[in-house]
């Protein structure tokens, strides 16, 4: 049986996040999730966050913090990069009461016309990872259900947005030139490591995941260009936090 036949809608999970974590009365129903520790450290200082929980199981040890904005209390945490652990973080936050997620991080562009730092909103993702096949029937693509709403909110906030398909892969060091060309020919404007799996878990669990990315490195030319990967200044990092909070405010 191929891995793409892994989806099982007929029987229940043996291990559930709710076996390890219980719903907490009063826990924020909306969470901000980033994949960048530097950005999260800035969030902690800027938003005066306080610790409220610690995840268990597959996301063991990840701290969850609370922040208040506009009179509303939100949860926030930083996730390691990659579909399996990002989905584990979402599963465990669902277990304690979160129903809406705003997720933001970096991506590599496949289109040379997209400038470094530009905001990208995924509309659909190519499922080149293993996690989503346990949450949704096999298919090459999965739509991002919240994409149109995310685009509307960001554009209303005056943000220039590129909306397009992305390529989700687990294999950061196996993004070969031929594969890049195939994904670009299929319409992908960027590559990242979580989107398709997050869209799948959102659909399966009945929660909302809103996601935006910023263009960091580029795979569009013959040679890899790191551009601003790992070198984003403080100001745009904080701008991303404000955008995430604006999305959270609008959809809360």
Give the N-to-C terminal Cα separation. Answer: 42 Å
**Can you count the helices?**
7
Q: What is the β-strand count?
A: 10
Helix content: 25-40%
Number of domains: 1
Assign the structural class, choosing from mainly alpha, mainly beta, alpha/beta, alpha+beta, or little secondary structure: alpha/beta
CATH class: Alpha Beta
Average predicted local confidence, pLDDT: 96
Task: List low-confidence stretches.
Answer: none
Shape: globular
Report the portion of residues in β strands. 25-35%
Order of helices and strands: HEHEEEHEEEHEHEHEH
CATH architecture heading? 3-Layer(aba) Sandwich
Q: Provide the spatial order of strands within the biggest beta sheet.
A: 5-9-8-6-10
**Largest beta-sheet details:** 5 strands, mixed, barrel
- Give the CATH superfamily: Nucleoside phosphorylase domain
Alpha carbon gyration radius: 17 Å
CATH topology, what is it called?
Rossmann fold
Summarize the structure.
This protein is α/β, with parallel strands linked by helices. The chain has a single domain (23-251), classed as Nucleoside phosphorylase domain (Rossmann fold, 3-Layer(aba) Sandwich). Helix content is 30%, strand content 29%.
Question: What are the SSEs and their pairings?
Answer:
Layout: H1 17-20, E1 30-34, H2 37-46, E2 50-54, E3 63-69, E4 72-78, H3 83-96, E5 100-109, E6 119-128, E7 141-143, H4 147-156, E8 161-169, H5 177-185, E9 188-192, H6 195-205, E10 208-218, H7 234-251
Parallel strand pairs: 1-4, 1-5, 5-10, 6-8, 8-9
Antiparallel strand pairs: 2-3, 3-4, 5-9, 6-7, 6-10
Helix pairs in contact: 2-7, 3-6
């Amino acid at each position: 049986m191929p891995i793409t036949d892994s989806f099982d809608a007929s029987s229940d999970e043996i291990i559930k996040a709710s076996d390890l974590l219980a719903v907490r009365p009063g826990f924020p129903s909306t969470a901000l999730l980033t994949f960048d520790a530097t950005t999260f450290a800035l969030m902690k200082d800027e938003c005066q966050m306080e610790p409220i929980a610690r995840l268990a199981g597959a996301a063991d040890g990840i701290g969850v913090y609370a922040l208040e904005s506009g009179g509303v209390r939100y949860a926030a945490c930083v996730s390691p990069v990659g579909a399996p652990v990002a989905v584990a973080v979402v599963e465990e936050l669902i277990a304690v009461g979160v129903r809406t997620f705003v997720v933001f991080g970096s991506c590599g562009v496949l289109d040379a016309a997209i400038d470094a730092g530009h905001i990208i909103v995924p509309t659909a993702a190519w499922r080149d990872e293993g996690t989503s096949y346990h949450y949704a029937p096999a298919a090459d693509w999965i739509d991002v259900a919240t994409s149109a709403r995310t685009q509307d909110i960001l554009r209303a906030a005056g943000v220039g947005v590129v909306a397009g398909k992305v390529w989700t892969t687990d294999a950061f060091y196996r993004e070969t030139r031929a594969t890049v060309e195939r994904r670009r020919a299929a319409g992908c404007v960027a590559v990242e490591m979580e989107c398709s799996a997050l869209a799948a878990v959102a659909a399966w669990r009945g929660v909302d995941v809103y996601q935006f990315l910023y263009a960091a490195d580029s795979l569009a030319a013959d040679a890899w260009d790191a551009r601003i990967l790992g070198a984003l200044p403080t100001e745009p990092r904080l701008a991303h936090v404000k955008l995430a909070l604006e999305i959270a405010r609008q959809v809360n």
